[in-house]
Amino acid sequence: MKLLCEYKSSKKNDYTPALDIKEKPLTNFFNTSQMRKNPMRLSPIPEREVVKHFTRLSEMNYHVDKGMYPLGSCTMKYNPKVCEDTASLNELLGLHPEAPESEIQGALEIMFELGEFLKEIAGMDAITLQPQAGSHGELTGLLITRAYFNSKKEVRKTILIPDTAHGTNPASSSRAGFKTKEIKSNKDGILDVENLEKAMDKDVAALMITNPNTLGVFESNIKDLSKVLHKNGALLYMDGANLNALMGIAKVRDFGVDIIHFNLHKTFATPHGGGGPGSGPVAVRKHLSEFLPVPTVEFDGKQYKFNWKLKNSIGKVSTFYGAFQVMVKAYTYIRMLGADGLRGASEQAIINSNYLLSNLKEEYDIPYKKNCMHEFVLSASKFKKNGIRALDIAKALLDLGYHAPTIYFPLIVAEAMMIEPTETESKESLDGFIEAMKTIAKQAEENPDVLKNSPCTTPVGRLDEVKANRDLDVKW
Ligand SMILES: *Cc1c(COP(=O)(O)O)cnc(C)c1O
């Protein structure tokens, strides 16, 4: 019997019907001078083939719409599609960035209200929506810090940063012209008041603290840390990119925070990663509001307007409004969830993360034993004796259908794997991830060579890491 694949149709794969009228030359209809001399330069590739090509490419990629993406510190959560719909409304997309205020009242209202919501969530007094990334927010916050001390005619050049901070913190600090001094955290992974006191002097402008920090641990001394700073005339900057662990639960104002940035593209429903636009609003306490970038968006009871008249503004930090569509997405998300929903999202993020942590603590080392917030850090050190590193575990996860966690960060944990499940994963999905991690741990003990061949199911296999780094060639 013939197999199906051997069967060949006698017909061509062409279903256009045969012509049933007499064929006539075009010159019967057109004057030859109107006709082209050379064929039109159309793409030789039909639309159908182009669509197939790009669809195949999109399937080679892993993304948040496809599966769990536990990349620690990055909050790769599912973002409701309705946010894309509102951000794509013609009335908003078609705005001219230089249209007069009277014609963009709706857009200004969205920006104003979003600012009010964020101020309420953090308990702060004033805000700018201009910065276009978390790190851009950090730079803005530090320029505000500098302007504040300049206005007091004080010279302070040092920013203190704990060893558990996000990597952008020291980078932003030096970009803003400060010296960075690292402070060690204690055995529980948080900053001690004594350690801060030891590092304090008259040159310290601020402490820049990521909270929850990159170990996924809440800095529970933060209120006392703020007192030490304020007593010495310094400021407390909180990196609030991890606000999906706090929103609706605690207001950072109560911690003594003077400046905070948000990552709308993590916490507030704009996809993070992929190089798309981000937004990193910065909120401050009253004594710093005169230094915010201009213009701020204000409402006088009748009209929304840009306020260009801030006494000591650091100036503009973005063109036009900043990343307006990201603001529309955040606005939609906050309006949809409401206060209870935002709190619910934080609680779910924390529960999901603790569920994973408590189910993986037999198989992996937990360097910091406390309960975690929205993320946690495991160590793969115990498999090193079998030649297995965090990198091998990350690669093996790809074969089991998961995106890898962040690895080798934070730097204070050997063979670190930083896992953030986010609030949008179901219990079934978390259970699947736990099973995958347990399977890998078992192989790492019993059959380590198997892991060395991973990934073998992805379009690209294991890369030579050094060559990929030093000899980058992306043209193929
Ligand atoms: C992501 C992140 C940042 C940087 O945000 P970008 O928008 O990528 O510049 C800063 N701090 C923390 C804690 C983060 O998680």
Describe the protein in words.
By secondary structure, this protein is α/β, with parallel strands linked by helices. It folds into 2 domains: 81-337, Type I PLP-dependent aspartate aminotransferase-like (Major domain) (Aspartate Aminotransferase, domain 2, 3-Layer(aba) Sandwich); 342-456, Aspartate Aminotransferase, domain 1 (Alpha-Beta Complex). It contains 14 helices and 12 strands. Helix 2 runs antiparallel to helix 10 and helix 4 runs parallel beside helix 10. The longest helix is centred in the C-terminal third of the chain and has 37 residues, at 324-360. The radius of gyration is 28 Å and the shape is globular. The two termini are 44 Å apart. The chain binds pyridoxal-5'-phosphate. Pyridoxal-5'-phosphate (PLP) binds at residues 73, 133-135, 166, 168, 210, 239, 241-242, 263, 278, 280.
